[in-house]
Amino acid sequence: MSLGQFLLVAVLAVPALGALAVAAIPHDRAARLVGAIAAALTLVAALALVAGRSGTWTAYGPTAPGVRPWHTVDSPWVPGLDLRFHLGVDGISWPLVVLTALLTLLCCGYSLWRVPAGGSGRALVALLLVVEVGILGTFLALDLVLFFLFFEVVLLPMYAIIVGWGGDGSDPASVAARRRAGRKFALYTLFGSVLLLVGVYVVVAAAGTADIVALTGGTGLSRGTQLAAFTLLALAFAVKSPLWPLHSWLPDAHTQAPTVGSVLLAGVLLKMGTYGLIRVAVGVTPEGARWAAPVLGVLAVAAILVGSLVCLAQTELKRLIAYSSVGHMGFVLLGVATLTATGIQAALIGNVAHGIITGLLFFLAGAIKDRTHTGALSELSGLRETAPRLAGLLAFAAVASLGLPGLAGFWGEAFAVVAAVEVGGPLWITLAVLAAFGGALTAAYLLRLLRRVTHGPPSPVVAALRSGLPGDPADLAPPRAAQAGGTGVAGAGQAGGTGAAGSRLAGAEVAAWAPLVLLALAVGLAPTLVLGVAEGPVEALMGVLR
Amino acid sequence: MNEPVVSMVQSVDSVALLPAYLAAGTAVLVLLVDLLLARPAATVATAAAGAVATVVGAAAVGAGGVRRTFCVGTDCSYVFGGRAALVAALVAVLVLGVLALSGPLLRAGATPVGEFCFLLACSMAGGVVLGAAGDLITLIVAVETLTLPLYILVGLRRGSLASAEAAVTFFVVSVIATTVTLLGAALLYATTGALHLERLGVALADGSELLDLPLTGVAVTLVVAGLAFKVAAVPFHAWAPATYDGAPLPVAAYLSTASKLGGVVALLAVVQFALPQGVTGPVLALVAVLTMTVGNLVALRQRRTVRLLAWSSVAQAGYILAPLGALALADADARSGAYAAALAYAVFFVLLELAAFAGVVALRPAGADGGRLDDLRGAARRHPWVGAALAFALVGLAGLPPALAGLFAKVTVVRALLAGDAGWLALVVAVNAVIGLAYYLRFAALLYAPTGAVPAVPAGQAVPAVPAVPAGQAAAGAASTGDAVTAAVRPARVVTLALAVATVLAVIVGFAPQLVLDLTGN
């Protein structure tokens, strides 16, 4: 077993074993620590995957397959179901693998410091690690059936996170709300994944193999099969991504999920859909993709416009950020729909950028909600006055999200539009114009968000934060008392531990956010971090699509 | 005149019959032990030992290749091969599991131990013969031997009106079903002159002019319909929920696992060997669609635990039948794949279903019925391991990870359907899996729900209030007392053991489903 193969297995085995260990250790804090260590080791293994890039890279040639993984592990598992344990990593999946490992580590680290009310901390960390296994497995799988398997793994743990630790308050109404949101999430996503199951076996039954490497390019599949399979697969991934009009599970799930759940949901879970669209739907059934591209493009632009317009009317912080995901994923899907190298590159970097920025936004929204116990924009204003650092970070994240050049959000959105223009023709030019207009709307709602939350005179809940100024020796006890009086949510911060209140940023918060801030800058200034590794694989994919 | 001389003295291969001897011997021995020793523990131990012996015997004989006996010419009435061994072993394992589940029930004293064990062993003998049946009469007699003892077992809860009602419903429906099957078999004999499954298959092969006879169509329909009763397929399902809910919990577990498996095996045998696929395929496809859809939709609205499991097992029967329904279109390769898929699904299903029932039995007071779903609210918080195992079984029945056994079961069926060019049926199965998740998830989430969320009277106050409340509120009061009882109960050790074994088995076949696929494939 080479080092690369060892790393591939380790990336999945470490979090899986970590989850078991966390579940087995009775002591809560020790268990959470073990979970964080497992997540850290996973990140190390994921990063190391790039270092040992193998020589298959140079194997360009007329017969080269559309997927040329750096490392692969391939062993039979269930021959009766055409299922092989076939993993591999290349430039398309690697950035997402690292992003997943990073966000999970940040979430586990954050959970060391703060566990939302509802259940034990170690159960939460164990579930986070299981979710990580599912997401990483989806990105690494090179077998269609294995891909489906990992796709499904994510479903129930995420449901449990939303229902167990989500929402705020334990009154019956909010319990019912988060249960509804969780159930909606579970049923919607299962609907997507059963379509994936059928689509996968339509391909497998026709081609006689489930090997993604062999299948990429659509070899051996008739046009009819490709159209049917693409329809099923695209529907499945459209639910996950989510693509308008199949998005309605997303705002509820994101709003009700606890901070760490929202971060993982928005940060990487949605990427399973877009990644699947590129690797499986477009890769395996290119003819179907060409056939459906205009429809996909129109829906993507509709998602951009609808998402932005809905955001303009949102009154709740987390819900607004959740809906903004619909718009941003619209840009990613527009990039995929163009079926050009530029478009796919835009989709890949858009994926990563959205993961970084929205992860950060959800962390910040969680921090604001933890402090003020409200997410209503009407009750929040003047955060700049009482919590300048928090307000500054929020402004940074919002500006990055709206696609300011120099920050990560820019590249994906700009190049999706460019790719649509490049395709040409009246339809795609119109789509490009509308998408660009959607980009302007994105700026409008994010600036509105900033105006409402950070500017203006401090609202009562925000003003209550003032008593926790940095350096104030009594900044631990009084703010919570003040909040309890000010908002009437007595005891809501019970699981918060120290430092949740007040304007000061806790060390854990800074530690969780700093990598995301730095990455947003780094990817913005040097997009080659993502595009450099993705260039070769995308070219290879384009090679077999033509 | 030219007929080959067929010896009227049949040679009997006793090795092939060994598992059946063991199972039937168990029944006799249980009766004797109960009569002579009259010690409940000894009786149960005898039955359990007999079941273990049957498992071992079936495995040993099955490993030695196909054995035929009671042959007339080339047609044999008893063919003990790999599949028969699998069915026999599975039935015996299920009997063992059900015996374990009945521990608290038998200890509670309301049920006569000797009769219970004897009837269960008789039923096991039917199940063992069933898998090996090679002609229609053996098949029907085996199915009857499997189900006949259940009429009494269902009604064995003394002093329970629901139990007696359930027994009568089950008896009447089942007898009618048997009559219908027998009539079908008689008509088939009238048209073809054959009873052996393989000879029927030859006589009714594609292109045979017998297929144009209306009588053949009627006969085939009657046989299939009669057996569909046994698997509780829609529209022959109405008996199942009432019967399951009225029966003692372990018997309900047996009904929904071993009895259902028996129906599936019988249906499989006639469809695979005897009846023309062109006729049965579309009929079974329709029945499968109806069964899963109706089962799932009605299960959504259930508030009683066993009724929910009953309706869900109706739906599961639909998934099992689905591959059989796709046969009309498929080629021979896809056909054998479809039979294997149906049987594989049944194996995964009975394992998970047994675990689910074991979980419910463990969480309910000794000898109690399934109660309402609300009685189990928060049970996993009080009994984390048992609750987790029950939730695992439910998730498996829904077909999702981490219960990979259930996932692979669904995958097997969908794969067989797509290989048989029945994509539309695969989509129906897929959509039904989503509906199924809705109630399985509700049930599983309920186990973890905080008990405080119920706007119920504290248990301490509810108990004295019960006699005084008017009829309308009695149900609510009973629910909260039921909750109080559940909170106090400790799962019986033997039930926990059965649950643990079923869960471990489900985990093992979840990671190595090839084991099941290999067993069902040959």
UniProtKB/TrEMBL annotation, chain A:
Keywords, comma-separated and alphabetical: Membrane, Transmembrane, Transmembrane helix
GO cellular component, one term: membrane
NCBIfam families with a match to the protein in the record: NDH_I_M
InterPro entries: NADH_Q_OxRdtase_chainM/4 (IPR010227), NADH_UbQ_OxRdtase (IPR003918), ND/Mrp_TM (IPR001750)
A biological process term (GO) from this entry: ATP synthesis coupled electron transport
Protein name (Swiss-Prot/TrEMBL): NADH-quinone oxidoreductase subunit M
Membrane topology, as annotated: Multi-pass membrane protein
Occurrences of domain NADH:quinone oxidoreductase/Mrp antiporter transmembrane (ranges): 141-436
UniProt main location, coarse: membrane
Family in the record: Belongs to the complex I subunit 4 family.
Subcellular localization(s) per the UniProt record: Endomembrane system; Membrane
GO MF annotation terms: NADH dehydrogenase (ubiquinone) activity; NADH dehydrogenase activity; ubiquinone binding
Pfam families from the UniProt entry: Proton_antipo_M
